[in-house]
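Title: Comparing notes on inverse folding

I've been comparing how different people in this forum approach sequence design from structure. To keep things fair, I'm posting one structure and asking everyone to reply with a full sequence. Here's the target:
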């Protein structure tokens, strides 16, 4: 059975890159190599794998990859740290729970 992986790497500038592959080792090597100077991770090397999940259905893997790409940084970090309570909290509707996910809407003034 063939497997597909959705993964998150943390870049040297502390940004995250989300991708999908059928070979984690090969993709990490490619992200950290000089192979593609136009790629997002090229100028942000080295990258470190911080999370991955395997799938047997490539369609499901693509769907999850796209979903995670749309998440906020804090929601991605909750997934990486497996903090399921915060992941649920950060999934709540902003109009009901505010930007902070706790009912407050503190500003950055």
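Reply #1:
Here's my take.
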């Amino acid at each position: 059975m063939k497997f597909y992986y959705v993964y998150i790497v943390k870049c040297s500038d502390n940004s995250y890159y989300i991708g999908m592959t059928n070979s984690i080792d090969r993709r990490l090597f490619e992200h950290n190599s000089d192979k593609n100077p136009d790629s997002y991770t090229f100028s942000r090397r080295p990258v470190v794998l911080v999370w991955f999940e395997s799938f047997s259905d490539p369609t499901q893997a693509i769907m999850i990859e796209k979903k995670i790409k749309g998440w906020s940084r804090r929601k991605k970090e909750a997934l990486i740290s497996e903090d399921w309570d915060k992941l649920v909290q950060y999934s709540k509707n902003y109009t009901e729970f505010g930007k902070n996910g706790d009912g407050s809407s503190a500003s950055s003034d």
